[in-house]
Amino acid sequence: KQLGRGQVVVFEPAMMERSTQHARLSMELRQALERGELRVHYQPLVALDDGRLLGMEALLRWQHPERGWIPPGSFIPVAEESDLILTLGDWVLGQATRDIAQRLHSLPPGFGLHVNVSVRQLIQSDFALTLQQALRDSGLPASRLTLEITESLLLVQDAATESRLRQLRQLGVKIAIDDFGTGYSSLAYLQRLPFDCLKIDQSFVRNLSKSAQDAAIVTAVLRMAEGLGVEAVAEGVETEAEAARLRDLGCTRAQGYLYGKPQEIDAWQARP
Ligand code: C2E
Ligand code: MG
Ligand code: MG
Ligand code: MG
């Protein structure tokens, strides 16, 4: 149908297999939501100088009764092919804003919640309403929320995405560009796009101590963020050596296994 009327496409067995698999996964996901098998885990975002907690990112998890924890990378892309991502996205937004709003009194001042949002959610005409509803229902102030949008998905950008981001920022929420450096954002686009934070993809952090090229790229991104007046967060920091290198390069915020893996909200609460 995508090819238009009168087009005939030979249906490959592999295509059928894939679409059947996806259909099954979609069905299982809907059931998982109903059965309460989906969970939101949280990973800390910290200040690189002293490790203090700045916020947390909400990450969706599926606790399958037989297959155990299923990582989002193996089901979000399938959900993104249909409106299922809207159902999942709404659920995460509701759950995460409630989890954090309820615990805000015991979290440091300025604490921010980051929630990943699919471009498909973003472009819904009622997304701003959905968002306002989640903030109202949970009691989380808009200023505490950052929406993370993956750079590669912003490719399907157009004037509509841009004006939607503007509208959301007017509500008081912040916008972060996730996995920065892995997509194809042009500098002209970055100049126009309303956003508050760049998350430097972990692929650049990984070889930081060995690769002069990666260090040069990270330095350039940090300078650019500074010049644009936006925050920069390094993703996927696993070792003290990576953290030290990032500090040397002038990075002030980070996230990664070095500071904590994603866990249930109460696992963080129990910490001294
Ligand atoms: P992301 O938003 O870039 O999230 C960071 C991913 O890196 C997470 O994987 C996190 O567990 C992982 N990570 C964090 N620190 C480290 C580290 O030090 N080393 C390594 N190797 N990995 C680290 P996760 O939870 O598997 O999520 C994968 C992606 O799935 C996310 O990437 C995000 O794009 C997507 N995702 C997760 N939850 C949601 C959601 O609620 N909605 C949407 N639309 N997408 C989501
Ligand atoms: Mg993210
Ligand atoms: Mg990322
Ligand atoms: Mg990612």
Automatic annotation (TrEMBL):
Keyword Hydrolase among record annotations: no
Keywords: Membrane, Transmembrane, Transmembrane helix
Molecular function per GO: cyclic-guanylate-specific phosphodiesterase activity
Domain EAL residues, every copy: 22-272
Listed GO CC annotations: membrane
Gene Ontology BP term (one): signal transduction
Name under which the protein is recorded: Diguanylate cyclase /diguanylate cyclase/phosphodiesterase
Organism of origin: Roseateles asaccharophilus
Shown stretch of the complete protein: 603 to 874 of 874
